[in-house]
């Protein structure tokens, strides 16, 4: 079973930066498209960005120019570099497969709080 472990969240001021990491426990990592998702209380979990096995990426419009997703296939790890953070980026961030997340494999997530 594929497992995801997120880390790197924290409390930052508006305009600050954080780098999130997601370690994926699978022997087939390089074949998977992995996405970062985020969720605020009472809201659904939304996609933020995703990265293909070959490194091609896409991010949603709300974070374009501020967030960068990347991966290291040798380390089974996906990163989310977040710059110029805004209070509306406050959420719990998760990683999972894209476009069909594994329902039973969501990790604990990592909390990002951006103060104004």
Brief descriptors of the model:
single chain; 116 residues; mainly beta; 10 strands; 49% strand; globular
Helix content range: under 10%
Instruction: Provide the gyration radius in Å.
Output: 13 Å
Ranges where pLDDT stays below 50 over 5 or more residues in a row are none
Average the pLDDT over all residues and give the rounded result: 97
Protein model, in words:
- This protein is an all-beta fold.
- 0% of the residues lie in helices and 49% in strands.
- It contains no helices and ten strands.
- The protein is globular, with a radius of gyration of 13 Å.
- The mean pLDDT is 97.
In short:
The chain has 116 residues and is an all-beta fold. Helices cover 0% and strands 49% of the residues. Strands 2-10-9-4-5-6 form a 6-stranded mixed beta sheet, with no helix packed on it. Strands 1-3-8-7 form a 4-stranded antiparallel beta sheet, with no helix packed on it.
Would you spell out the secondary-structure blueprint of this structure?
Elements: E1 3-7, E2 10-13, E3 18-25, E4 34-39, E5 46-51, E6 57-59, E7 67-72, E8 77-82, E9 91-97, E10 110-115
Parallel strand pairs: 2-10
Antiparallel strand pairs: 1-3, 3-8, 4-5, 4-9, 5-6, 7-8, 9-10
